[in-house]
Specification:
220 residues, alpha+beta, 3 domains, three-stranded antiparallel β-sheet
């Protein structure tokens, strides 16, 4: 459905977006996708350009979509709602991005934003399931527990450079404290290394030196 509006001589970005009923993010996405051309009159849009957009507004609106670019948490919430019954772990959005399935579109307060248009059109449940399994993230203590290790054993893996964090977040309990997060796929990779007998590590009694203490410290 097209809308008839009184035409002005020219339009600034706020006037243009308001008069076609677009929020700021919709207008910016339309520009990024070149659904609305660049301003043609010294940072403003001519009436001719505006009228051209009005004539194809339904198509522009459909191409822009309804989901804004969002952070990881909201992206994962959206995917969980979209794919009913599928567990979408924290870290899934970042993993989808690593696999080139979910583009990053800028950042907010240092954290990446993920493409809402891609989320809205995502249909491959298996890709989400695989990304959820591989990209699931853990804090240090939870990562050690997932490996069946003591935290001291886990720290030896870090010291030796066999593991490193995949991303960081800010603690919700202690404001300003940066927390390192470890990825499931990296934990699985470490478990496959032939250098370590993890059964022996787990069997080491409390108070005895861990076999991992003999690992050489990574240089640098």
């Amino acid at each position: 459905m097209t809308t008839t509006l009184k035409t002005l001589a020219d339009y600034g970005p706020r006037q243009f977006g308001d008069r076609i009923g677009f929020s700021e993010w919709q207008f910016e996405r339309a520009l990024r996708l070149e659904l609305i051309p660049a301003a043609d009159q010294h940072g403003r849009w001519s009436a001719a350009v505006f009228n051209d957009v009005i004539a194809r507004l339904d198509a522009v609106r459909a191409a822009v979509g309804t989901v804004p670019d969002v952070g990881a948490g909201r992206a994962e919430e959206y995917l969980a709602e979209r794919f009913t019954g599928l567990t979408v772990h924290p870290g899934t959005a970042a993993e989808l991005a690593r696999r080139n399935h979910l583009p990053r579109c800028g950042e907010y307060k240092g954290y990446p934003l993920y493409c809402g248009l891609t989320l809205e059109r995502f249909t491959d449940r298996r890709k989400v399931a695989r990304a959820s399994a591989a990209g699931r993230t853990y804090t240090r203590d939870d990562a050690a527990a997932a490996l069946g290790l003591r935290t001291a054993d886990f720290d030896h893996l870090l010291r030796a450079g066999l593991l490193t964090h995949s991303e960081t977040t800010v603690s919700t309990w202690y404001k300003g404290v940066t927390v390192r997060l470890y990825r499931q796929a990296d934990l699985d990779r470490v478990l496959r290394t032939p250098r370590i007998d993890f059964d022996a590590v787990r069997a080491t009694p409390k108070g005895h030196q861990s076999p991992l203490a003999k690992l050489p410290t990574r240089a640098g």
